[in-house]
């Protein structure tokens, strides 16, 4: 059978298009490092989300090496957390569930785009090589404020990323002449040890304490503050470690209950 030259050209072009479509779909599915959604995420009762180890405090967790897990709870009309930060050159697995109705979790610019159904946990894995920002959107209509349901995923350089947390306990008021303490607890969310310095600045005084925190552990630092050196009055303080800091005010009062150091005469 003799096939006309133009028919051969069209047949060839059609074959090229078919191969191109298959290659595009294949790359979109596995090329960027995406694991397609399946039922591996498991089930969860929406009313028990707050009691679940993974979703009680949703956020980023370092699981070792360059691998991270992010737990996200969708609810009308927000995500928790709505601001997510992960390092570049990392593989991130998202676990997302819904507290109320069906939502979606879509990370713009990636293949992360899945329905989030109450009672189920959606699981997706994606690799982020370069720093950048990605919007998070809900593509499933979930009520009158559906259009406001959004978040932000920020990929930062590896050397700028940490999972350090700081918790400070300090008195609001202390009597002059008494030594007081400000206690800082530093938690390291990474699986690797952290060597860092905790700093307290109060008045014109500065205290520094070097600490080593084991991976996924925490350490407490106690700063002894001499109120006589501070003097009566209000003194702003700041405790800082890595990129975290907490601030407040310590009031030093004199023996008569005043904070201005006066003798109390009218």
Automatic annotation (TrEMBL):
Which GO molecular function entries does the Swiss-Prot or TrEMBL record give?
A: copper ion binding; cytochrome-c oxidase activity
Localization? Cell envelope
Membrane keyword on record: yes
**Membrane-spanning ranges:** 9-30
Stretches for region Disordered = 225-266
Q: Where is the composition biased (Gly residues)?
A: 255-266
Q: What is the name listed in the Swiss-Prot or TrEMBL entry for this protein?
A: Cytochrome C oxidase subunit II
For this protein's source organism, the top of the classification is: Archaea, Methanobacteriati, Methanobacteriota, Stenosarchaea group, Halobacteria
């Amino acid at each position: 059978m003799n096939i006309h030259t133009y028919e051969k050209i069209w047949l060839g072009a059609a074959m090229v298009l078919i191969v191109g479509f298959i290659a595009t779909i294949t790359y979109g599915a596995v090329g960027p490092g995406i694991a397609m959604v399946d039922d591996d995420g498991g089930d969860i009762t929406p009313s028990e989300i707050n009691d679940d180890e993974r979703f009680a405090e949703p956020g980023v967790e370092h699981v070792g090496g360059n691998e991270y897990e992010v737990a996200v709870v969708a609810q009308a009309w927000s995500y928790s957390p709505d601001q997510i930060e992960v390092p570049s050159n990392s593989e991130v697995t998202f676990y997302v569930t819904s507290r109320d109705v069906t939502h979606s979790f879509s990370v713009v610019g990636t293949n992360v785009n899945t329905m989030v159904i109450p009672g189920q946990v959606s699981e997706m894995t994606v690799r982020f090589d370069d720093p950048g920002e990605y919007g998070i959107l809900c593509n499933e209509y979930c009520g009158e404020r559906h259009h406001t349901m959004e978040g932000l995923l920020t990929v930062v350089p590896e050397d700028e990323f940490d999972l350090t947390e700081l918790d400070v306990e300090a008195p609001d008021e202390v009597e002059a002449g008494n030594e007081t303490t400000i206690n800082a607890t530093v938690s390291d969310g990474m699986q690797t040890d952290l060597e860092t310095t905790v700093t307290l600045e109060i008045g014109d005084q500065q205290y520094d304490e070097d600490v080593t925190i084991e991976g996924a552990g925490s350490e407490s630092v106690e700063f002894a503050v001499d109120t006589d050196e501070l003097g009566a009055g209000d003194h702003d303080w700041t405790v800082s470690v890595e990129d975290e800091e907490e601030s407040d005010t310590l009031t030093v009062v004199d023996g008569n209950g005043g904070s201005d150091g006066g003798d109390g005469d009218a």
